[in-house]
Amino acid sequence: xxxxxxxxxxxxxxxxxxxxxxxxxxxxxxxxxxxxxxxxxxxxxxxxxxxxxxxxxxxxxxxxxxxxxxxxxxxxxxxxxxxxxxxxxxxxxxxxxxxxxxxxxxxxxxxxxxxxxxxxxxxxxxxxxxxxxxxxxxxxxxxxxxxxxxxxxxxxxxxxxxxxxxxxxxxxxxxxxxxxxxxxxxxxxxxxxxxxxxxxxxxxxxxxxxxxxxxxxxxxxxxxxxxxxxxxxxxxxxxxxxxxxxxxxxxxxxxxx
Length: 257
Fold this sequence. Notes:
Blueprint: H1 2-14, E1 25-35, E2 42-48, E3 51-56, E4 63-67, E5 74-79, E6 86-92, E7 95-100, E8 106-110, E9 116-118, E10 128-131, E11 136-139, E12 144-148, E13 155-160, E14 162-163, E15 166-167, E16 171-177, E17 180-185, E18 190-194, E19 201-206, E20 226-232, E21 237-242, E22 247-255
Parallel strand pairs: 1-19
Antiparallel strand pairs: 1-22, 2-3, 3-4, 4-5, 6-7, 7-8, 8-9, 10-11, 11-12, 12-13, 14-15, 16-17, 17-18, 18-19, 20-21, 21-22
């Protein structure tokens, strides 16, 4: 009897996480390009209600901005204290929420005026933040996505992000796109598409070569690092950019042949 059961047990093991099929890889098509401030160390990007918001990082250079999509010009800005290192941003109702990298603070602003309303303590490194309409979703540079109550900022749950059963670490900038979390994996040109219910990677968006070599900032070694994902849900437009990139791209994922 035991010998008969061994093939069945082996088959069941193969259906577990370690035997899951590789997530499909998608290429991209550039739909449009827009100017982007090459001095912006982009950490977070949002497009909502016709406005593009951007969070930038580095101590002494961190900011929260409202930017003209077609012009790339900064229409409104709040500069962070020199001791703070800004990270990802998201909109929640009439508020903007910005993470800080290692300062252990959340920064909560009035969305219209950029007035700082609160800076509650935050126990993690801040990397990326988005929301699904019910809860905030954050990354801290590990393979874990955490869910936070949008009012108290207390953790309410978490998922481990896996691809073929393996953890996917360095999850950075996040964007919620039609039921999935898009997360760029620092410091690569890849975006993981994640099922927030299970943590499974459902696909990879490979943006290698998106910024032409001639457009890269020669003085900055990491100028070609992808960072910044925004989704216009009303018109189903996906925008991406990078740290110190002079271009913001509107792209369409395309199945790889």
